[in-house]
Amino acid sequence: MKKISIIGLFALGLLLMTTSCDEEETVPVVAQVEPEAKNDDEEPMEEAEEMTTSFNVTITNVVNYLNAIVFNTHNAATEPGPIPDAGCFYSIDFKALPPGGKLSFATMSVVSNDWFFAPRAEGISLFENGMPVTGDVTDQVYLWDAGVEEEDPATRTSEPDGATAGAPDDDDSVRIVTTEVSNFIKVYLSYDEATSYFTLKIENVRGNKVETDPIVITPGIIVIHAQDNALFTEGEKDRGLGLAKIAVQGNPSDLHGWFTESGTDGTPLRLSSSFTVLSPGIVYAFNSESDPIFMEGEPMLDGSGIEELAEDGNSGVMYDHIANDLMLPVAKSNEMMPIGPGGSLTFTIEVPEGYKLGYNTMFVFSNDWFLAHGNSGFPLFSEDGTPISGYGATEKTYLYDAGTEVDQTVGMGPDQAPFQSGPNTGAEDDNNLIRRVMEINDMQYGKGTISSPAGVAGHGDPRGGYNLVKVLVEPN
Ligand SMILES: [Ca+2]
Ligand SMILES: [Ca+2]
Ligand SMILES: [Ca+2]
Ligand SMILES: [Ca+2]
Hints:
Layout: H1 2-22, E1 52-61, E2 65-71, E3 89-95, E4 102-109, E5 115-119, E6 124-125, E7 127-128, E8 131-132, E9 135-136, E10 141-145, E11 175-178, E12 185-192, E13 197-204, E14 217-225, H2 243-249, H3 253-259, E15 282-286, H4 306-312, H5 316-326, E16 330-332, E17 344-352, E18 356-362, E19 369-373, E20 378-379, E21 397-401, E22 435-436, E23 439-442, E24 448-451, E25 469-475
Antiparallel strand pairs: 1-17, 1-25, 2-14, 3-13, 4-5, 4-6, 4-14, 5-10, 7-8, 9-12, 10-11, 12-13, 15-16, 15-18, 18-19, 18-20, 19-21, 21-22, 23-24
One calcium ion binds next to loops.
């Protein structure tokens, strides 16, 4: 058996080589970075024997906002409202499992025009070396000016009609008022290992019955995020999404509405379903009607490399298959290690006119899920042959189940790549068809079941989805 298959492979190899030589000679198999790739000239490479175009492809892990929760009722109250008295606090429970992410929040300082308390730009890391961060974290919290209303005691929110009166700020950037807030508020975190819930406590320690610097804090919002600058960027203008309404009126509803908005499929437009890293990936190009690597609704093709990539993040088998068996343009990512939120996989690929793009990267915190463009591929050229540029390939990016390993809870499965004892470990999937992942049960952050009937993974798709990636195509 072994002998025959080796001979078979040799024969196939010879056949492919012969075919290759008989065809136009220059369909490049491996993308190379062209030394003159930065040439602004729109024409294809002059030296190219065939009309090919070099494209840069960037697949960015956009996982960021993982949960957003309003807080509005303090410990001694039964109705939503601000905290005027020292010793009272807001207490907010939220779930997070390692590697976790970061915490940001915003609560107004009412005796001001547009000041609010919020953590520094990076947010408060929830885990360090896999251990939950607990105790007093006040030193990571600052008092900020939202840059929307000029400082004027007469129009402070604490004054009659102050919440609606006031002149525009002469400095419209979000900026630090003070980094030392421990005389005003205290902020604590605690963690329950049994439930994986943190409790955030924001306490007014000064109150309003003082001669100077009275402090009243308001309802606000917490956001669990993976990247920096979740609510604003220091030195930049407020984003206009509702932070100003917290900073001036103590009302978090607009900002909460923005974070939790759904698309036409009823699936989140902005919240990411899960924290995951993405494996080193692959891009390729084809001119057949359908993607030659996999067919949705059918079992994996033997030798396609889908199983190795989707279970273990190993792109080698798929690369060799595309380069040597299919003899199509293919490139591995320049990055050899998985990329986390905010990171990107970058590729350069040389493509003949009329070809379409396919790509593949593993959703690493799963058993056998991968991200890929829909089966028809992304057209890299318009009908008149102009190379396409922009984020258009994002929209039909889907999350697929390879049908090769049974699924465990996202981010928590002992047979998932980061946790398994070795490659290809895990039980067979009950369903061996390659299919879209239609729902994710978010055990990492407790958002419940997120349903995306279409398996949408690209951020910015009007249907809403899992908000995991953005794909940029740029001709060189
Ligand atoms: Ca101001
Ligand atoms: Ca005002
Ligand atoms: Ca599976
Ligand atoms: Ca596995």
